[in-house]
Amino acid sequence: MIAATPALHLLVALSMAAPTGTPTTCAADDLHCSAPAFAAKARRAESDTERVEYLYFANRAYLALAEQPPTGHVPSRDLCQAKLLIEQALALPATQLRGRVVESRRETLARLTEHKVRCKRSKPVQKDDPAVALADDA
């Protein structure tokens, strides 16, 4: 039986995501390149369906990267990034990938627990108060 590993999921995702005839900038096995590339594609996605797909692919890439980190790389950061991305995917309307997204979230949380990683909560972005021009009552 073939074990379904994050790397296997990623290879399938890469083959599905790359449009035919269009060269990709990341090699299929270069997780250090593809993980942030998928996250960037998710930010630029034109539909929620596309955004969920790329968030899922990015999550899988970060999980695989945390599994076999390059020298000098911190796997806990990759796990936290994977968690952040999969939570974003779950917050979007359900798509055909919903089952895989939910399963990937379970796997991500299990890995975080297994490695005793606690991710910092992202701080809400505070918008600056708009500049107010004061006028003289003359």
Number of helices: 5
Helix content: 55-70%
* Beta-strand content estimate: under 5%
Oligomeric description of these chains: single chain
> Poorly predicted ranges (pLDDT <50, ≥5 residues)?
15-23
The run of helices and strands is HHHHH
Number of strands: 0
Structural class assignment: mainly alpha
Radius of gyration: 19 Å
Distance between the termini: 84 Å
Mass-distribution shape: globular
Whole-number average pLDDT? 80
Tell me what you see in this structure:
This protein is mostly helical. Helices cover 58% and strands 0% of the residues. It is globular and about 35 Å long. The relative contact order is 0.12.
List strands and helices in order, with pairings.
Layout: H1 6-17, H2 31-44, H3 48-67, H4 75-91, H5 98-114
Helix pairs in contact: 1-3, 2-3, 3-4, 3-5, 4-5
Jot down its keywords.
mainly alpha; about 140 residues; globular; about 0% strand; about 60% helix
